[in-house]
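Side project, low priority. Logging it here so it doesn't get lost.
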Amino acid sequence: MNTDIILDTIKNGLIDSIPNITKDQIVMGAHLKNDLGIDSLSSMFFLTFLEDNIQGFEVNADTIEAKHFNTLKSIFEYVLNEMKIPVSAI
């Protein structure tokens, strides 16, 4: 799976999980909580969406941290790291 498809899937997951946001609001520097309004419940829906829609990705309870939910970029980098895709590929 290429990084563009992964990024689009992450954006779609945010749209699916957070009420009242649009794809235009989801930019790499968008803060997931402050700008997009993600909360603990929508975070769980979001992570489940990612696991269901990104082949080969599973959330690792030992590696996921709150810092991964700072921005779109940070969650994207977390997914790539977990999938062993070099972050330099973005």
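Brief comment: The first helix runs from residue 3 to 17.
Revisit when time allows.
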